[in-house]
Write a structure and sequence with these properties.
The structure holds 2 protein chains of 2 kinds.
Chain A lengths: L3 H7 L5 H9 L6 E3 L2 E3 L2 H16 L7 H23 L3 H13 L1
Antiparallel strand pairs in A: 1-2
Chain B lengths: L13 H5 L5 H5 L7 H15 L9 H16 L2 H8 L17 H4 L5 H4 L11 H12 L13 E8 H6 L1 E6 L5 E6 L8 E4 L15 E8 L4 E4 L2 E9 H6 L1 E7 L2 E7 L8 E4 L15 E8 L6 H13 L6 H4 L10
Helix pairs in contact in B: 3-4
The chains are: A mainly alpha, B alpha+beta.
Chain lengths: 103, 334
């Protein structure tokens, strides 16, 4: 886990001010450690994603929360789907794979 | 994790790997004389389509995106582009540190924090909660089901000494609640603390779930933990090692005086009984092991050098003899 300035040093083109704004907007949610931020790998990857959305994919900043929210829901749904699949037996999975292949 | 899961994604990009072209012009679909604007437009168009984080189900998207990024990096740098055109470097250009994409974490343990909706995103419903409330409304055999609330998982990192000595920490949860977490003395890295009744609300009068807090311990600058014992590399001067000395040793409970016996070698382990992790949960206190490490330092002078030269002539010892097979001039001196 790394602090705020380390993240800025590690991610090319990321300004500390910019990151602080994103934290205030709750786009990135690092852990807290003694009043300081502790960024995990997931947080750093999310920061890179936001930079990509904005700089490489022309997503305007006001639209970023919508995109993040949709992605978070997508990942949550995939995670839930995985949990559901883990509760199923293999004959069911094979049937499901057949059905999905036909879609 | 998904070893038995069916392949849910169709390999749309199977065609791409067939022609893993390392020619950046081909990758971006450009002619050799493309302008900087053409390159940027082509890259953006492809990046939008293939970014792995907007294609979570497609295993090929990451390779494709890397390919596009590498091609763009190369062509948008006039110097590299010229070198590629001259055949001096290949399409991969310079090797880049592998990037870990967000989707690699998003569905794992670390992504949990983002999968629960942010407070202002509460308006977005999801099919599973619809599904669950439908199941709840239809009722089971005995009417409305009663169900204990869900356990909720959190992560917390604590300093090494907090884990050794115990501490109390206020933790703010994603939903804004603050929990007082008592870290018991002797807590181990990766241990999970259970806060009863602090998880999700129960249904129909049942008890709420628990908050499960997985604690990771931040490594210390010089202490290492081995069960209840603590290890430490302790630098000593040549004089202290040869002549013996009374030295001050840091311990989790504060500084302690310790005797270094004369003629102590590097690697010698000295034990301070009961100075490791404090007694906890019915277990006695651990010990602190200081492993001596002789430091020469910069403050040597000619007198020391002269003394060592004289000593060396009197004692032609080879401490590596047992490794090299050469004869130790002093015989079996250990």
């Amino acid at each position: 886990m790394i602090g705020l300035s380390e993240v800025c040093a590690q991610v090319p083109g990321l300004a500390e001010e910019q990151l602080r704004a994103w934290l205030a907007e709750d786009w990135v949610r690092p852990l807290r450690r003694d009043g300081d931020f502790a960024f995990r790998d997931v947080d750093v990857a999310r920061i890179r994603l936001i930079l990509d959305l904005h700089r490489e994919m022309d997503v305007e900043l006001p639209t970023v929360p919508l995109v993040l929210s949709l992605l978070d829901q997508l990942f949550a749904t995939r995670h839930q789907l995985r949990l559901v699949l883990e509760m199923t037996d293999s004959p069911f999975r094979e049937r499901l794979a057949e059905v999905l292949a036909r879609e | 994790m998904d070893a038995g899961a069916p392949a849910l994604a169709v390999d749309v990009y199977a065609t791409y790997i067939g022609r893993m072209a390392s020619n950046p012009y081909q990758i971006l679909g450009l002619a050799k004389d493309a302008s900087a604007d053409d390159i940027r437009r082509a890259y953006r168009k492809l990046a939008k389509k293939h970014h792995p984080d907007v294609n979570p189900g497609d295993k090929r998207a990451e390779d494709k995106f890397k390919e596009i990024s590498t091609a763009n990096d190369l062509l948008s740098d006039p110097d590299k582009r010229a070198r590629f055109d001259r055949g001096e470097i290949d399409g991969a250009g310079q090797e880049q540190a592998p990037r870990e994409f967000y989707r690699g974490f998003a569905e794992g343990e670390q992504g949990r924090r983002y999968r629960r909706p942010a407070p202002d995103a509460a308006a977005y419903q999801d099919i599973f909660s619809d599904f669950i409330s439908a199941a709840r409304a239809s009722g089971g055999p005995q009417g409305a089901p009663r169900m204990r609330g869900q356990d909720e998982h959190y992560q917390l990192s604590v300093e090494f000494l907090e884990a050794v000595r115990g501490a109390s920490r206020a933790v703010t949860l994603p939903d804004g609640r603050t929990l007082e977490v008592v870290i018991p003395a002797g807590l181990q890295d990766g241990q999970t603390l259970r806060l009863r009744g602090q998880g999700g609300a129960g249904w129909n009068g049942e008890a709420p779930g628990d908050a499960l807090i997985e604690v990771s311990v931040i490594p210390h600058k010089f202490f290492r933990r081995d069960g209840d014992d603590i290890h430490l590399d302790l630098p000593v001067t040549m004089a202290e090692a040869v002549l013996g000395a009374r030295v001050t040793v840091p311990t989790p409970g504060g500084n302690v005086a310790m005797s270094v016996p004369p003629k102590s070698d590097t690697g010698r382990q000295l034990r301070l009984r009961g100075r490791g992790v404090a007694a906890h949960a019915g277990r006695p206190a651990g010990d602190l092991y200081a492993t001596l490490r002789i430091v020469v330092g910069t403050r040597t002078d000619e007198a020391l050098e002269a003394a060592l030269r004289a000593w060396k002539d009197r004692n032609p010892v080879d401490p590596r003899a047992h490794m090299t097979g050469q004869t130790d001039p002093m015989g079996a001196a250990a």
